[in-house]
């Protein structure tokens, strides 16, 4: 394969960029444009001055790899467990997972996770996503993983036929994509796959690019109504052979006892030397085996025509994007796919999340009705940005030292701004950008 690398010194070769833009604009969204019309993320754009010109490339057509699942029995999980030997040096990891949210309890869960500086995975319901879009935004911005738990959790409908299950996955995916710009690849079956999924469910979801994830420790917080916190703590705290705990909990309506139990559960795992992980579609998922109950359901498999029109092209949605490596004066941070976007050839980044990652901060000034951002703790210049108009003022001391109007996006309350403008207005001398087969790179100096 021919390796294509473009190095671009920004701001100085506009003509070349314009030609390159014409050549490569169709591939900027990693091929997604063909399958997915531009979302409201882009429609909200304020037309203004150009931001950073993203280095461009041909998209590669590699489909995301799937790893072999680790099969477990639903009963006797701890005894049977994995078929693979864990590497002896790998640290013990617990993956906290929360199903059925978001709800009015999710904010408390996020506060607890933040206080403990740990990540978790939220398997959300489409109907709850519609009710609490701001919580999806927050889950996403705070670095947790979002998985798909179907739209309404209705077993009768979901397990009567695969197309019914599929429709709910896609509907929920659209709701999440509208908010985060990303499509969750992780799927968790309501009630778990045991007794529900047959080989068709597993096979078609995998073919479509999804990774089905069960659990190997059940906190027991949904075995009946109002399970008390102490009982949840007891159920949730246990070692498993191999040291990889995928813990099932719930943050849906009515699960306040789970929230109450959470700090103790975290403390227990911390005390035993566990790391806290966020599930990734790249890791081998825990999956229950197909059992006799599921096989006995005798559902008819979808037709070849249905599979062709629904499943065949879906995996292309998950072609791997490239991370954006941002080097600011020698300090490097990485923005993964979905944590940045490219609009009209310019890198757009979430203002608050980015400034926090590079050691600065962003606060809302309600009196001035603007976001105030600093790119480092000791920055001489602070930026006041008005989300509605994109108006930016760079302030040094009490003096406004420059003004411009940015192309900005508002994604459910989060302000996204052009990367280049952010650094230029803050007084950085220059920016270069490049892209190769593995990554995009922006260096600020
Ligand atoms: Zn559930």
Automatic annotation (TrEMBL):
The superkingdom of the source organism is: Bacteria
The protein's GO terms of the molecular function aspect are:
hydrolase activity, acting on carbon-nitrogen (but not peptide) bonds
Q: Which SUPFAM superfamilies match?
A: Copper amine oxidase, domain N, Glycoside hydrolase/deacetylase
| A Gene Ontology biological process term | carbohydrate metabolic process
Entries under CDD domains matching the protein: CE4_SmPgdA_like
Record Gene3D superfamilies: Glycoside hydrolase/deacetylase (3.20.20.370)
Specify the NodB homology domain's residue ranges.
92-277
**UniProt name for this protein:** NodB homology domain-containing protein
Species of origin:
Paenibacillus rhizosphaerae
């Amino acid at each position: 394969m021919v390796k294509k690398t473009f190095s671009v010194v920004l701001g100085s070769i506009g003509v070349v960029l314009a030609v390159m833009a014409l050549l490569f604009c169709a591939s900027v969204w990693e091929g997604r444009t063909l399958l997915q019309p531009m979302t409201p993320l882009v429609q909200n754009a304020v037309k203004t001055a150009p931001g950073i010109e993203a280095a461009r490339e041909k998209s590669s057509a590699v489909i995301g790899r799937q790893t072999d699942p680790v099969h477990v029995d639903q009963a006797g999980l701890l005894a049977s467990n994995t078929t693979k030997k864990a590497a002896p040096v790998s640290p013990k990891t617990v993956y906290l997972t929360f199903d059925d949210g978001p709800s009015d309890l999710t904010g408390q869960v996020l506060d607890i996770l933040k206080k403990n500086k740990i990540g978790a995975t939220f398997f959300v319901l489409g109907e709850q996503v519609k009710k609490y879009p701001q919580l999806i935004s927050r889950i996403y911005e705070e670095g947790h993983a979002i998985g798909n738990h179907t739209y309404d959790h209705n077993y009768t409908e979901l397990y009567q036929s695969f197309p019914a299950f599929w429709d709910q996955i896609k509907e929920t995916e659209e709701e999440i994509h509208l908010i985060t710009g990303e499509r969750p690849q992780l799927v968790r079956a309501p009630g778990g796959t045991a007794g529900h999924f047959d080989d068709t469910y597993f096979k078609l979801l995998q073919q479509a690019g999804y990774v089905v994830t069960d659990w190997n420790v059940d906190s027991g917080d949904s075995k009946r109504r109002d399970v008390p916190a102490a009982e949840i703590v007891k159920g949730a705290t246990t070692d498993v052979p191999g040291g990889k705990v995928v813990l099932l909990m719930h943050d849906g309506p009515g699960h306040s006892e789970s929230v109450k139990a959470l700090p103790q559960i975290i403390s227990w795992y911390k005390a035993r030397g566990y790391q806290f992980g966020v599930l990734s579609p790249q890791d081998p998922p825990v999956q229950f085996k197909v059992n006799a109950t599921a096989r006995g359901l005798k559902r008819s498999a979808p037709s070849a025509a249905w599979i062709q029109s629904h499943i065949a092209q879906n995996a292309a949605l998950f072609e791997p994007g490239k991370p954006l490596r941002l080097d600011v004066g020698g300090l490097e941070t990485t923005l993964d796919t979905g944590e940045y976007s490219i609009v009209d050839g310019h890198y757009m980044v979430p203002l608050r999340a980015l400034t926090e990652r590079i050691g600065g901060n962003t606060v809302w000034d309600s009196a001035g009705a603007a976001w105030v951002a600093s790119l480092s703790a000791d920055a001489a210049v602070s930026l006041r940005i008005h989300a509605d108009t994109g108006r930016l003022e760079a302030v040094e001391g009490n003096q406004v030292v420059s003004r411009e109007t940015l192309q900005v996006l508002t994604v459910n309350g989060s302000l996204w701004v052009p990367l280049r403008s952010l650094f230029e207005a803050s007084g950085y001398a220059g920016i270069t950008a490049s892209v190769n087969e593995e990554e995009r790179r922006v260096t600020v100096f």
